[in-house]
Amino acid sequence: MTHGPHGEYGAALHVAHRHAMAWLDSVDQRPIRPDLDVDGVHARLPQELPEDGIDPVAVIEELAEASTPGLMAMGSPRFYGFVIGGTYPAALAADWLVTAWDQNTGSRQPTPATAAVEEVAAAWLLELLGLPARSGVGFVTGATMANFGCLVSARDAVLRGAGADPVEGIQRAPSVRFLAGDAVHTSMVLAGRLAGLGAPQTVGADDQGRIDVRGLERALGDGEGPAIVALQAGDVHSGAFDDFAAAVEIAHQAGAWVHVDGAFGLWAAASPRLRQLVGGLADADSWATDAHKTLNVPYDCGVAIVRDEAAMNAALGAHAAYLPSVQSVSDPYDRTPELSRRARGVTVWAALRSLGRQGVVRLIDGLTDAATALADGLRAIPGLEVLNDVVFTQVCLAAGDDASTAALGEWLRAEGTVWASSSTWRGRTVVRFAVSNRGTDGEAVRRTIDAVARGAAALGVGGQSARPRDEQVR
Asked: Which positions ≥6 away from 412 have C-beta within 8 Å?
């Protein structure tokens, strides 16, 4: 094999770079939906494992050409599904370096560079979000694992508070009450199950999904023993925020640990304009967020934050004779459920370094402004209504009946200008627009409204009929 000026990696990386740039250059204008489904891509791939390998350049060419028709343009500024952000250039480039460096960032001793970068990124995050500066921060795969790490830390802390030893397992410990609002996200439910807490006892919620504070108070008063309360910063449908000040006070009076699932909404704390949405949030005991959502770094990058770093270390820390450690200093694997992982926090450092504090504020405010403009434009389309109070980045759209709403969602996803998720909220079918991409500007909003208007007209929603192309909104 000819290695060339960059050794054995150069030729394959050059081809990968060419395909990566071709993809990035196409994202803004290509149809968002994939052209092929799983079976279609599967048919393009070699089916038999070869006896002998082939050249890496050929492998990458084959992979890219087979896969590209099945890729979703998730980085498009008109992709509104699943609360997925785009990617800042510095974060993407840093992620390439992380892959090339290939540092297993579990311990500070063998990987000082990436561990140091992550520690700076963690400090910047705490400062931006107004959270206690000495909190423990772990970089995990996503919001589910961030919630899980926080709930395990909470579980062990409240069990120790009840006189039990978590090392002996939950089977021999007192039962832990796990409470949440009716609109609790599925990732929190799953994290609770994985942590051995089971599904949460729900205590009610208002019409926007905010926890019923009085219901929480009653539920805490009706039982006894250790308790964990899960609150929410950013409902997945409405974008609404719980009343943290009231709920945290009530929970703490009852001796409960308070965790905040802020997968995308925790970032509101970085904006002076939006900070009133999160009043009292910093008084909680743990927080989870997802940097590949609102901060726009590449997959994957969840963040688990625990006020009491010692409690986090006690619950998640790994100890073995072969593992290096420095006394009195936490290692990365003391703050995550993983021993082995990539240095995913480096992309957070790169994004924050390239943006600065004011850049983050502009990002958060810009996403909120885009959601507000989108909602205003959608309300103006006959036969459609926005069902939620648009306070952050979520917009739930509905037609006059569920069948028409479902058809509109299918039409949009098939047409390709826009991709938005269909869901059910408050007993109605909705098309949910999650504004998470840094590139969702006025032009993206205009094109989105135009696509929805064309879809509504094509389907006859609200008595509309399809208009000639030159009469459609430009």
From this structure: 418, 419, 420, 431, 451, 452, 455
